[in-house]
Amino acid sequence: MRKFTAHNIRLDDGSFTRKEKGIDMSQHPVMLICKRVIEEHYPNQTYIGRRIVDIGCLEGGYTVELARMGLDAVGIEVRQSNFDNCIYVKSKVDLSNLTFVHDDAWNIEKYGRFDIVFCCGLLYHMENPKRYLNILSKICDELLVIDTHFSVVETKEKFNLSDLEIHEGLKGRFFQEYSDPNKTQNENAKWAAWENHRSFWPLYNDLMDAISDVGFSKVYEVESPTRGIHNQRATIIALKD
């Protein structure tokens, strides 16, 4: 068994990748929210066969559960150790509609268009989040699900963020991913950005406006346990006409 650091995935033989975590990925709060939103947007299982991408998929746990729903699921992961875990999981589940690719999230346009885009725990690792939202808008035909941190106006924050600044036309704060800007592509820093030494967290309203500005006609937050735990984290749904 390979060592997993994050995702507790149920394999077809009944074993789990991180059994000590208790609940498996099918019961993860963000997965349950995503499943509910997809089922509401595509009633009567009309989501089956639609294309979805899980960007920065880590060890593939969400991607597997999305494939088990019947979606044509693609997981993109840049870190080799995480990708190796994804490939291991794929070998242990019988899902012909499950694909993993080893690539940087910024190269997502190479993989065509998707009905649904799932972006969990990635946007707050981007130095230029609005530029990335523009890319997501280009490849997303209908539904975007984002789970991300954001900044607040108050200075007393849980995270070590910069003073308020304007970046990409958005108000927000910078978060330091790496202390040395010349050392960023760290294979072992699984909870840090891949190639930028700092990331930008827009204020909540600026983030919502940015998602709308790039081409989504309806943008709203759904109730999520991550909001209560982190306060500065939200699960956001965006729809195209």
From TrEMBL:
What's the name of the protein? Answer: Methyltransferase domain-containing protein
Residue ranges spanning the membrane: these are none
The coiled-coil regions, if any, are none
The UniProt entry, under Pfam families, shows:
Methyltransf_31
Domain named Methyltransferase is located at 50-141
The organism named in the record is Limnospira maxima CS-328
